[in-house]
Amino acid sequence: MHCHDLPIPAPCHESWEAMAGDERRRHCASCDHSVVALSALTRDEAITLLATRGEHDCVRYEHDAAGVIRFADSKETDDKPAKPVRPMMMGRVAPPKPAPAPTPAKPPVKP
Fold this sequence. Notes:
Blueprint: E1 20-21, E2 25-28, E3 33-37, H1 43-52, E4 57-61, E5 89-91
């Protein structure tokens, strides 16, 4: 998953460390929203959460220099060094773009 798939139009500048909670979910007293650390979840957990997230959920994630979001189950091997991690992004994810309307089928041409 790429960070362009989860744009954060107005990143939050509140301190994650100052929020109450655990490594996966914390509560922001400033805006009264839950903040979920996607990089602490597996990719499947993150996809499920994003599909069912509430109106008051914000996310936070790490991504590498190529923009690929890091998940708890991201693969790193000794022969392939990890790409440098960019600073954490945190804030409300933009709503998904609606799917384009299907184009109507053309009626069959009669000979």
